[in-house]
Amino acid sequence: MFDVHCHILPGIDDGSKSVTMSLEMLRLEAEQGIEGIVFTPHFYASQNSPETFLSRREQALKELEGSLGLLASVPRFTVGSEVHYFRGMSRSDSLESLCIGNSNFILIEMPFREWQPVFVDEIEEISTVHGLKVIIAHIERYFNQDKKLVKRIIENPDLLIQCNAEFFIEKKTSSKAIKFLKKGRVDLLGSDSHNLDDRRPNLAEALAIIERHDKKGALDHINRMSRTVFEQAR
Question: Residue ranges per domain, the chain?
Fold first, then answer.
């Protein structure tokens, strides 16, 4: 399995605060049998230019790579970003630089404020204008938005849907997660891990739950899509 959404790179966003923490998070990923990881630090257009963000990401990656020899085992990894929605992003010339590795997959976090139709319009335009393959980050966090707009995203075959492990793990959402899984619209999974406390790497726990309920090959689909994203990125 591949973790396609996490905040393990040190000191770049609200995720890992140090190389030491990042190494322990990587150790947990390896312990859980994770084969590959996509590092996806937050990108906010209102806070950084793409150039500044990419420079900071490269520095964080170098700092982490310099200490990987301390670990007995390290999953393969690549870099991407979690791009927070911003107006005009479908016309931005910088989106390609924020994709996952060398692929044309891009992870986008939708706004948490009340959605407007133009938000979804813009996301749909990204694939037509730029030819990028949009991955919608943690879809479960938007279920309280306008149902028609959420439905547009879920039913659009050109958009990939990513769910977080906690969606399946938390008792209050687990049954809803399984129902959503059975609809066949979970394409990718991520730990969205930020630290070693309340948001630690936890993908293995979610996978165990999915395996118990998967009757239609949903996990095989997730594995294929995850591998496709990861291999194209490298």
Answer: 2-233
Q: Which stretches of the chain are assigned E, i.e. beta strand?
A: 2-6, 36-39, 42-43, 76-79, 82-84, 105-109, 133-136, 160-164, 188-190
Work out the number of other CB atoms within 10 angstroms of the CB of residue 37. Answer: 28
Yes or no: domain 2-233 corresponds to CATH 3.40.190.10: no
Contacts of 234 (CB under 8 A, 6+ apart): 76, 78, 101, 102
Compute the distance between CA of residue 190 and CA of residue 185 in angstroms, rounded to an integer: 15
- Taking alpha carbons only, the member of 172, 179, 232 closest to residue 210 is 179
Query: Tens of pLDDT along 34-78?
Result: 999 999 999 999 999 999 999 999 999 999 999 999 999 999 999
pTM above 0.90, yes or no: yes
- Residue 50: other Cβ atoms inside 10 A: 18
Q: Which residue from 158, 157, 149 is spatially nearest to 130, judged by alpha carbons?
A: 158
Return the percentage of the chain with pLDDT > 70, whole number.
100
5 is written with which tokens? Answer: 């959404």
